[in-house]
């Protein structure tokens, strides 16, 4: 975000709400009062999205929400300033690391699952893992547990509990987040359990761990890191906020979108074993050269802007509209649908969604995406 802001002649700053919604609202209000031109945020839980989005809308600044999303909360219903909600396709993205883990376990054995906070959409990835498990009849889930947070300490606490309950019966660990995985790895190492585990989000610490710990290292090893990637997400929000400030307005299909993930595979694993997975693979070195470049990244942020690049604009990453038929991946169902809720008519316009999806796909495939 800071890199893209600099490219557009702006400055960027970040604040940590520490999981406190009231603090986050206060931070957003303070930023707008201080003259902020845009806000991008992740609410501590799905229930907090409406409050922070309305705070931005009341302040008249374009707002972007990542990961968390309120139940049946349509950006268009909040206000025009709620430009976009974005998240990796929860079930599909959650299934990819599970399949890699199950293959590394030899297609059989027992695993445990460390989830994030209950009620956070990031924990829905586990639904994808359960779907993936259906193709592995000899894989057994010993237990799953919400961690209450996304920290290493939470990962340690849950993993310690699993080892106390299941001990050597554990053959693999599914983690909904890379930081949780690194916390779990410390407990596994302390117990001389060199087991495979998964990760998600694309943090530098996880990529470095993957580089330094392979299947033959004698240590717990992370099989992959599923990356959104967050680096691109930050720059993209700035580019689209710039467009919004210059009169561009997104269509309904653009206001809730899946972002495809990258799979940073452990170099010690055979990538050919996973050729059937619908994902883009990147080596740790390639990922770090893009997301953690010492200089300017390979992304052209102005190219992502309609205002700056006109009809030649390019997202430089795969984005897909979230369709009505996929709302179950957001855990929207009849049980939590508000009485009297009206759904925007555009969600029944399949042709419009097809058109937007194809447009984004073709633009991304023109060679400017640094991972393609």
TrEMBL record:
It is found in: Cell envelope. Keywords: Signal. CDD domains: PBP1_ABC_sugar_binding-like. Residues 1-216 form the Periplasmic binding protein domain. GO terms for molecular function: carbohydrate binding. Signal peptide: none annotated. The keyword Signal applies. The keyword rRNA processing does not apply. Pfam families: Peripla_BP_4 (PF13407). Belongs to the bacterial solute-binding protein 2 family. This is Periplasmic binding protein domain-containing protein. It comes from Halarchaeum salinum.
């Amino acid at each position: 975000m800071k890199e893209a802001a600099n490219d557009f002649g702006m400055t960027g700053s970040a604040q940590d709400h520490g999981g406190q919604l009231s603090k986050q609202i206060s931070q957003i209000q303070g930023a707008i009062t201080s003259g902020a031109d845009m806000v991008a945020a992740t609410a501590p839980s799905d229930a907090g999205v409406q409050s922070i989005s309305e705070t931005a809308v009341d302040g008249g600044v374009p707002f972007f929400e990542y990961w968390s999303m309120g139940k049946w909360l349509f950006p268009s219903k909040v206000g025009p300033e709620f430009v976009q909600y974005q998240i990796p396709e929860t079930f599909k993205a959650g299934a990819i690391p599970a399949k890699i883990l199950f293959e590394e376990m030899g297609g059989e054995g027992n695993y445990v699952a460390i989830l994030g906070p209950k009620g956070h959409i990031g924990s829905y990835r586990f639904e994808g893992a359960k779907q993936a498990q259906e193709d592995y009849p000899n894989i057994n889930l010993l237990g799953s547990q919400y961690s209450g947070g996304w920290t290493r300490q939470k990962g340690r606490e849950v993993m310690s509990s699993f080892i106390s309950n299941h001990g050597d019966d554990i053959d693999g660990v599914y983690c909904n987040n890379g930081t949780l995985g690194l916390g779990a790895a410390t407990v596994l190492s302390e117990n001389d359990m060199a087991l495979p585990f998964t990760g998600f989000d694309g943090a530098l610490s996880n990529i470095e761990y993957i580089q330094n710990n392979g299947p033959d290292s004698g240590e717990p090893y992370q099989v992959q890191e599923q990356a959104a990637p967050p680096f691109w997400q930050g720059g993209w929000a700035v580019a689209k906020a710039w467009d919004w400030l210059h009169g561009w307005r997104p269509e309904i299909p653009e206001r809730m979108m899946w972002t495809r993930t990258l799979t940073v595979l452990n170099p010690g694993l055979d990538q050919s074993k996973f050729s059937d997975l619908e994902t883009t693979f990147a080596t740790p070195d390639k990922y770090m050269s893009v997301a953690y470049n010492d200089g300017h990244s390979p992304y052209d942020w102005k190219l992502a802007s309609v205002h700056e690049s006109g009809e030649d604009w390019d997202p430089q990453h795969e984005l897909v509209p979230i369709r009505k038929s996929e709302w179950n991946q957001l855990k929207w169902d009849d049980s939590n649908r508000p009485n009297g809720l009206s759904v925007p008519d555009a969600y029944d316009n399949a042709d419009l969604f097809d058109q937007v999806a194809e447009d984004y796909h073709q633009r991304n495939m023109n060679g400017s995406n640094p991972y393609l």
